[in-house]
Each structure stands twice: as C-alpha cells, then as structure tokens.
C-alpha cells in the first residue's frame, strides 16, 4: 500500500466517514479535519509510519492536504 | 516542603447567557452552547478593573484560609488582560490589602499564569513565608463582541481566583511542579494593547492536546504516582473537548476533571484558581487524595503541579 492510500485510510478511520479527498484538497476548508482530529491525525501518523513528529513541526498547514501530509511523512521517514 | 493553604475566587455579578451574547456575535444561542459547551459567562461591570477583581478573590482566599493580609510575604498576580503596560495589578492589589513593603510581582501571562505563580510560589515560600497568588482577568474587554470576531468572542468570561502557598502548613503539600515554555509559537495566541485578542485555534488545540497529557504524565512518573491515584484534576478551563482529550490520554475517568466551563467560559489565567476554589469548597477543607493542577496557554507556556494530602 502506498503512503497516500495509507494516509487516506487514516483519515477515514479518524473521521468515521468513507471520505475520498483529492490529493491537494484542503482538509480544513472541506471540513474533513478539525483541531481535535488533527491532534489524532498526528498521533496516528507517528504510529502508522513509525516516525516521531517533533512539537516544532506541529503547524496545521503542514497537514492540510493528503499531498502535504505525504510530503511531510516522507521527509521524516 | 510548601503547602497549598487555601483557595478563593470572585466572579462579577453580571451573568451573560447565550441568549444575550448570541445577537452581539450574530449567532444562534443553541449553536453557541453546542459549539462551546458554555451556557453563560460573567462580565465585569463598566467601572471594575482587573485589580478590583483580584482584590476580591484575594480577600476571599485569605478569609478561607484564616490568613491575615499582614501574614503575606509575597504577592504574585497573573493577568493577560490588565488595562495598562505598567504598573500591573499586583502593586494595586497589595495596596488594597494594606501590605505596603511586601513585594508584589506581576506575571503578565494569560492562561497558564496562575499555574506558573503556584509553581514559583512553591519554590519561594521558604524565603517569603505565605505567598499569595492571584489570577485576574477581564477578557470581555479584549475581544470584539461582534460577528467578525465570533469564534473568539464566544469563548471568554471575566473573573479572578487566588491561592495561598504557605511554607509551614496547609491542606495539601506541593510535592513537585513542572513548568515549560516554547516561544516558537508565540504568534499563535496573542494580545496587543491596541487590537483584539488573536488566536490560531488549530495550532493552540494541537499543541495543548499533546503537551498537557505529556507534562502531567512526566510529573506523575517522576513522582511514582499513577494517573488513577489522583483524586482530582484541576485544569485551566479552556475547552471541554480538550479536557476530555486529556482525560482520555491519561486513561482517567472524566469525572475526576473538575469543570465549570459551562458557567464561566474561559477566564484565562483566573480559570485554574476559580476551578480550584470551587472544587475545594465542595471537596474540602481536607484533601484526601493527590491533586494535579495543570494549564496550557499563550506563549506557549504550560505545566503541572502535584499536591499530596497534608499529614495531620
């Protein structure tokens, strides 16, 4: 499974909805992600990809689309 | 070892419910309650100052603890909403309490200010004896009560709380504290004197949801206390969902987290001490099991304090 699919799976699991976000779609603007889901998303990314996300990287804009999340995850892998 | 000796608080008389606030911010009262969990908040009267709220909370606290003002050796006042750059409310509160000569220190910190005050007081009590810590805020004047500022205007309220930290005796012994700051996110929550409060809620919640459970866990682990052994968690009353998340992360029932957010909203640095004062009135005067106080806010500043029942 590629990273993008894994990320969408995480978002589906967290939101509890069968969502299909476009890679560059803003997750905040589309309402797929809110403040608390973002905190859960960060924890899920750490577990799924065995990475550590430092507090200095906890900026919502880094996680605002599937593409941005994938780029970030790859930079930490 | 220092002790928590007493708590006190003061809430302005004017109650502003959602039916009154909703038209100001262009929202439906039901939506306000659903979005925030806040049913009502208090607004200070036009002539009241941050210092006046603090004075009333200080007097309430001193009376509750049987401490006379003349026994206070140091005064610390946290506020992020004081009316002027200087002097802050600390010296004014000291004067009103009739304790000239006693050092009065301002902590110009919102949200976590009173927690930092308690953490510092625990270290300074050995030198100063009774340390009076006050948190006082008039948040209703630092937000714009209009539709353009709705998302922040609906969250806040006014009030003041106080605590005496004593060198020799009290209702709970302060076992340890952990304080931390990270200025890399100073822009996320800020207030200038000439503009309304700005909050990047996503960044604030993201960091708070990570840092609060972590700092509490670290404090408990290094004191060999399990989260379930804590009798009450007294947190800065910022957000109901955040408090629930902290409880979930620690694996503790939410009922152990004292919550008065629905009645007062977020009173910034005052909220922790107001919550502590109300909890203590219900649970006290003796504290039977360990207590954790914790806060996170603008700065970012965050931390936690662990207190254990005092031996008789």
Number of helices of chain B: 10
How are the strands of the biggest sheet of chain B laid out side by side?
A: 5-4-6-7-1-8-14-13-11-12
Average pLDDT of chain A, to the nearest integer? 93
Low-pLDDT residue spans of chain A:
none
What percentage of residues of chain B falls in helices of 4 or more residues?
A: 25-40%
Find the count of extended strands of chain A (DSSP E, 2+ residues): 0
Protein architecture, described:
The complex is a heterodimer of chains A (about 80) and B (about 300). Chain A is an all-alpha fold and about 80 residues long. Chain A has one domain (about 5-10, about 25-75): ACP-like (Non-ribosomal Peptide Synthetase Peptidyl Carrier Protein, Chain A). Chain A is about 50% helix and about 0% strand. Chain A has helices at about 5-15, 35-50, 65-75. With about 300 residues, chain B is an alpha/beta fold. Chain B has 2 domains: about 5-165, Thiolase/Chalcone synthase (Peroxisomal Thiolase, Chain A, domain 1, 3-Layer(aba) Sandwich); about 170-310, Peroxisomal Thiolase, Chain A, domain 1, CATH 3.40.47.10. Chain B has 10 helices and 14 strands. Chain B has helices at about 20-25, 30-35, 50-65, 90-95, 115-130, 150-155, 200-220, 240-250, 260-265, 270-285, and strands at about 5-10, 15, 40-45, 70-80, 105, 130-140, 160-165, 170-180, 190, 200, 230-235, 255-260, 290-295, 300-310. In chain B, the strands form 3 sheets. A 10-stranded mixed beta sheet of chain B has the order 5-4-6-7-1-8-14-13-11-12, sandwiched between helices. In chain B, about 55% of the residues are buried. The interface of A and B includes residues 36, 56 and 60 of A.
């Amino acid at each position: 499974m590629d990273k993008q699919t894994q990320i969408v799976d995480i978002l589906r699991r967290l939101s509890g909805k069968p969502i299909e976000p476009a890679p560059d779609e803003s997750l905040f603007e589309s309402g797929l992600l809110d403040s608390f889901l973002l905190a859960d998303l960060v924890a899920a990314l750490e577990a799924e990809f065995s990475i550590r996300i430092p507090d200095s990287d906890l900026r919502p804009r880094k996680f605002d689309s599937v593409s941005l999340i994938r780029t970030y995850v790859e930079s930490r892998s | 070892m220092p002790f928590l000796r007493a708590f006190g608080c003061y809430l302005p008389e004017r109650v502003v419910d959602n039916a009154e606030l909703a038209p100001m911010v262009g929202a439906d009262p039901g939506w306000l309650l659903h979005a925030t969990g806040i049913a009502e908040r208090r607004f200070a009267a036009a002539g009241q100052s941050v210092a006046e709220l603090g004075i009333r909370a200080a007097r309430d606290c001193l009376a509750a603890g049987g401490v006379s003002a003349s026994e206070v050796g140091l005064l610390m006042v946290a506020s992020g909403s004081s009316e002027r750059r200087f002097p802050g409310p600390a010296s004014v509160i000291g004067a009103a309490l009739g304790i000239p000569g006693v050092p009065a220190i301002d902590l110009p910190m919102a949200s976590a200010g009173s927690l930092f005050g308690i953490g510092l007081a625990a270290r300074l009590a050995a030198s100063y004896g009774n340390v009076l810590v006050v948190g006082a805020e008039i948040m209703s004047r630092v937000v714009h009560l209009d539709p353009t500022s709705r998302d922040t205007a609906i969250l806040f309220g006014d009030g003041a709380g106080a605590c005496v930290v004593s060198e020799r005796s009290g209702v709970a012994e302060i076992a340890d504290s952990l304080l931390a700051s990270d200025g890399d996110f100073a822009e996320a929550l800020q207030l200038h004197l000439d503009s309304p409060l700005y909050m990047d809620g996503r960044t604030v919640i993201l960091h708070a949801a990570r840092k609060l459970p972590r700092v509490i866990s670290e404090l408990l682990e290094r004191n060999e206390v399990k989260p379930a052994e804590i009798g009450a968690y007294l947190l800065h009353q910022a957000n109901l969902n955040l408090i629930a998340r902290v409880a979930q992360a620690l694996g503790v029932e939410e009922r152990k987290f004292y919550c008065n957010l629905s009645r007062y909203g977020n009173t910034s640095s005052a909220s922790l001490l107001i919550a502590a004062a109300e909890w203590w009135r219900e649970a006290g005067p003796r504290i039977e099991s360990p207590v954790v106080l914790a806060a996170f806010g603008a700065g970012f500043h965050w931390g936690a304090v662990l207190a254990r029942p005092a031996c008789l």
